[in-house]
Amino acid sequence: MDQGHLPGGGQSPPSRSSSSSSSNSSSSSSSKQNVGCRLVSSSAERRGPYRSSSSSSSSSSSSSSICCWRKQAAADGVVSDGLISLFNGLSLEESLQEDFGKKAKKKEKEKQQVLQLQKEKEWRCRDARKVIQKEQRHLKAIIAKLQEKRIEMRKEKTKTNREYLEWLERKNEFVAETARERRLADVVRERGETEKETVERQQQQKGDRKEKETEEEQ
């Protein structure tokens, strides 16, 4: 008797074994798919450096989109080596862009610091030049005053020397006159002449000398 047909022309319900086999096949296919996705996704994590949490805050949108693509691809079971390489390449590009941005900011900061130092150096040099110019003007004024004082001292010294020479000359004249008077007094005392007689004798001597000179000229 055929097991698939009941008496009276009716068809028997599907057997327990067939239903269990179909359910087992579907569950096994889904489990295989899930297992394959997990294996591929885990292999992708092992092979590539990509991690969604390692991205910076600036690239959070792109990393989240890549993560969504990866999850969808893992759910569909189509994650391949090429797609993994793409994920890893995008992650590397993001990290390079992030490093480049950091380096650019660092260079810009260093450039600004160098410019600030140059400005401060220029300011200090300008202030130093002003101080030096001020000191030079002060020194020039002092030198000019010293030169004027030296000229005045030289004039005073010249005047003093002239006055001293004049005084010395007067002194010599006075000494000579005093000596003459003393000699005259001595002569008068020796000869017993009076002052009037002495003057007359001197005038007579002068007259005699003039007559003698006149005779010699003739």
Automatic annotation (TrEMBL):
Q: Which residues form a coiled coil?
A: 129-163
- Locations of Low complexity compositional bias? 12-31, 52-64
**What is the protein's given name?**
Uncharacterized protein
Instruction: Identify the stretch(es) annotated as Disordered.
Output: 1-64, 187-218
Keywords of the record, alphabetical order, are: Coiled coil
Q: Which organism is it from?
A: Eimeria brunetti
Which ranges are annotated Gly residues under compositional bias?
1-11
Sequence ranges of Basic and acidic residues compositional bias: 187-200, 206-218
